[in-house]
Amino acid sequence: MPSTPVLSTSAARVLTGAGLAAYGLAYAWLLLTGHTRISPSLDPSAPGLPLWGAILPPLAAIVLARLVPPRRDVPVPLTGLPPDRLRKEAWTLAGLALLVAAVVPFAEGLLYPLVKVLLLLVVPLVVLRVTRGDGPRAAAIPAPVTWVAPLPAVAAWFLLSQVGPFAMPLPEQLPDPVTLVVGSLITLLTASVLEEIFYRCWLQTRLEALYGRWPAIMVSSLLFALMHTTRISPDAVVLGFATIVAFQGVFGLMVGYLWSRYRNVWVILFIHITVNLVFVPMLIARL
């Protein structure tokens, strides 16, 4: 069940409306300018994805999740914490997310994962400890109580995005096996796991406690999209922003809703790991 916001509904409406406007403008601009195929990569040889391919798999997952409620009551994290503490924590984390978006385009090589670990893990842990003071611990990640209910949504997303016509084709050139394995492991830890913990479990959960489900999902998904500013070309900034909102942002909407609906961290980790590991499409291509 969704959390009950502790702040005014007017702020919630503003955040939801701003989020819807951002998504609407991104898709409208892409359609009006004829960019019906998008590429989430700066690599000019990277295969593109039809615009509808970016939205239909997440939308199918959201619809199915809406139709399949959890059979047991899902714990609502962070209930009972003081609003002032929640506000400080939530907007400090949001500020860190904006800082990540501003810094990562300049972080090359191994500096990139180090910056993410610092700003998405080390600094947040310090901030959360300081703001807690003598107060109670904030258990933002409850033990999963529902496993079967999320499966239809996950299966629909997987079949449409990884197996069906909207599956992202493999790049024409892949690195050597050792580089591929090492890079995949780093990506698994610093992207799949770390990003879900920060953007969904820490940031979104606190925003939900303050403003409710959809304002929190909107804000966290857009901040998640902005983290991918490394994929914006200096020669096409508006196109780049529209692309990451339409691709990574909509992905964030889906995993954000699944997290809010079921509170099963392993479900959203599975989805994110599947997206980031090239071994999944390689395996499917061999079937």
Q: How does this model look, in words?
A:
- A two-stranded antiparallel ribbon has the order 1-2.
- The chain is mainly α and 287 residues long.
- The chain has helices spanning 9-32, 51-67, 83-103, 111-132, 151-163, 177-211, 213-226, 237-262, 265-276, 279-286, and strands at 37-38, 49-50.
- The protein has one domain (9-286).
- The relative contact order is 0.19.
- Helix 3 (83-103) packs parallel to helix 7 and helix 6 (177-211) runs antiparallel to helix 9 (265-276).
- It contains 10 helices and 2 strands, in the order αββααααααααα.
- It is 67% helix and 1% strand.
Silhouette = globular
* Sheet with the most strands: spatial strand order: 1-2
The tally of strands reads 2
Structural class: mainly alpha
Overall tally of domains: 1
Describe the main β-sheet briefly.
2 strands, antiparallel
Order of helices and strands: HEEHHHHHHHHH
Annotation field: number of helices: 10
Instruction: Give the terminus-to-terminus CA distance.
Output: 39 Å
Unreliable parts: 279-287
Helix content: 55-70%
On the 0-100 scale, what is the average pLDDT? 87
